[in-house]
Specification:
Elements lengths: L7 E4 L19 E6 L15 E7 L9 E2 L8 E2 L12 E12 L2 E5 L8 E7 L2 H4 L7 H11 L1
Antiparallel strand pairs: 1-2, 1-8, 2-7, 3-6, 3-8, 4-5, 6-7
Keywords: S-adenosyl-L-methionine
Family: Belongs to the tRNA methyltransferase O family.
Pfam families: TrmO_N
């Protein structure tokens, strides 16, 4: 298997588990810095015309043995692949950050839920026409429907 090599690191105000919001978009006012390592900084290129990016993270402080976890708002354990817990066999995080500015090898963004010093695995542009699925559903949709029946 190929080894994953971080391309950078997140500089965040969130220092320990419990500091970060459950989802980064819940607190879009907090700005963070993605510092791209020197050997990958040429890949930053020009972000003009791109407002948001997908950031793939390695949640290095996650519990990699968990296959079940309890999502917020419920007391029912669910299979790890049906929820967004950072605790999973391969703790890859997926955030969408709003670009605030680019300064050398640093991308200033908002909308992340990463802890300070979280390794960045990759960055891709967010493309609304292909990344947004308007008719998709999730667990919250099912719980809203259940609430309406009760």
């Amino acid at each position: 298997m190929t080894e994953i090599t971080p391309i950078g690191i997140v500089r965040s105000p969130y220092k320990k588990h419990g500091d970060a919001p459950r989802q980064g978009r819940e607190n879009e006012d907090n700005e963070m810095e993605i510092e791209i390592y020197e050997e990958y900084s040429a890949g930053i290129g020009d972000f003009s015309g791109i407002s948001h990016i997908i950031i793939l993270l390695w949640f290095d402080r996650a519990d990699r043995k968990r296959l079940f976890d309890t999502p917020p708002g419920t007391n029912k354990k669910r299979g790890i692949f049906t929820i967004r817990s950072p605790n999973r066999p391969n703790p890859i995080g997926f955030d969408i950050g709003k670009i605030k500015s680019v300064e050398g090898n640093k991308i200033i963004v908002s909308g992340l839920d990463a802890l300070d010093n979280t390794p960045v695995v990759d960055i891709k542009p967010y493309v609304p026409s292909i990344d947004c699925v308007p008719d998709a559903t999730d667990l919250r949709d099912r719980s809203k429907k259940a609430d309406l029946k009760n």
